[in-house]
Amino acid sequence: MSEERLTAIDLFCGAGGLSQGLHDAGFETLWGIDHEENTKPTYEANHDCEMTVGDIREEEPPDLGLEEGELDLVAGGPPCPTFSLVGRSKINSIEGRDNQSDDRHLLYEDFLRFVDHYQPKAFLMENVEGMLSAENEDGKPVVDTIKEQMRGEREVADLDLDLNYSVRVQLLDSADYGIPQHRKRLFFIGNRIGEENPDMTEWETHRKPKNEEEKKIKYKEDPSERSEEDQSTLHGFVDEDGTEEFPAFRKNRQSKEPWNTVADGILDLPPVSPSGDTPPTKAEEYEIGPVSEFQYWARNLSEEQDWEDQPLLNHECRGHNMRDLTLYKLLGEGTSYIIGDIPEEHQPYRTDIFPDKLKKQNPKEPATTIVAHLYKDGHMFIHPNEARSITVREAARLQSFKDTFEFPVSRTHAFKQVGNAVPPLLAQALATAIRTEIFHSPVERTEPREAY
Predict the structure, then answer these.
(1) Cα–Cα distance between 170 and 186 in angstroms, integer?
(2) Which uninterrupted H or E stretch holds 369?
(3) What residues does each domain of the chain span?
(4) 3-state SS of 274-330?
(5) What phi and psi values does residue 196 have, to the nearest 5 degrees?
(6) Could you tell me the maximum CA-CA distance found in the chain, to the nearest angstrom?
(7) pLDDT > 70: what percent of the chain?
(8) Contact predicate 154/148, CB 8 Å
(9) How far is CA 108 from the centre of its chain?
(10) Residue 49 annotated in active site
(11) Whole-angstrom Cα distance, residue 256 to residue 236?
(12) What pLDDT, on a 0 to 100 scale, did the predictor assign at position 357?
């Protein structure tokens, strides 16, 4: 990165997926906050900044040692379960409550309160796709209301805020930015310094495959075969064949790569029951080196480190009973990837309600959306080749956490933290676009990775 480190804070930071992406794009995160106590060990193990555990509705913005308006970016993803279709139905089923009156969907107002306090040059707010169809008590689209509040055209509850930001709202699919997972999320990008907010469709790096051949794993050539000539550019290292080091975020690419798939994401990771133990347990050592371009990036090895010396962290799944293992084995290529297509007599659930309650991930496609529900069961995230649900490390890979990102908490909490996170690679794409288009701050040349 350039010598200039732009400053940011991360509200509702969780494990720190958004903070990681900001860091990788050249931002220095000064502070984070989350209400979940179990996120603190994870956040502090991976980030060099203060993290507060607390209810943001009761917290006052801390003194960051900056003058008003000196902070560059306020970022965060207010948890708004009422904006998702599932969240709405659950809340409406609770006696005496409805999704409009549930106060959790107003947490974004505290995001705006922090924006008002620091008056950052820009902000980045993430939310679920369901917000697009949500309406307030007056029947007005919630997104329109929030944009008006961010522009200072509408009051924010009983808060006296001074906001005057131009805003762009976009729904993004993480697969379009190199992440081996389909995950649609809504992003609000705003700034008050008169710049145009980036159109993230112009920053996409990946696309839908054109044919079956493009769905195959994308093998990575041995990095030791690279030329020793200086081929670094402003956008990343360029190999002898003209391809760029992953990831290479830049505006208006002439060509895009096919989506990264489940195979690209996780198939270099070893089986968790190599001896056939039941239930599956965990593996703590890599058995082979990285294979795909994404896997080379995810291993995140230092120049002096060999893959055989790298510890394998969090590669552990939950145990399964024999009935589940048998059903898991049944699914896959040659039958169907979802249990709803299997003959009725073998159905463990009502197919009219839960056709995809059991789902094996297709290795030739990006994964389905990784969700926090993984902490309860893994039925919708069955490994493509093994009769088990995915591990924490595999879920983290599919979310674009590098293997060096540690989750030093119980497996249950780790699954929840992974599922709730903003994919770091998507955050990096957004932060790179913001850095480039709003702050006009260049990205430093990256050097070729040394042979292992």
Answers:
(1) 6
(2) none
(3) 6-206+424-437
(4) CCCCCCCCECCECCCCCCEHHHHHHHCCCCCCCHHHCECCCCECCCCCHHHHHHHHH
(5) -80, 130
(6) 69
(7) 82
(8) yes
(9) 19
(10) no
(11) 15
(12) 77
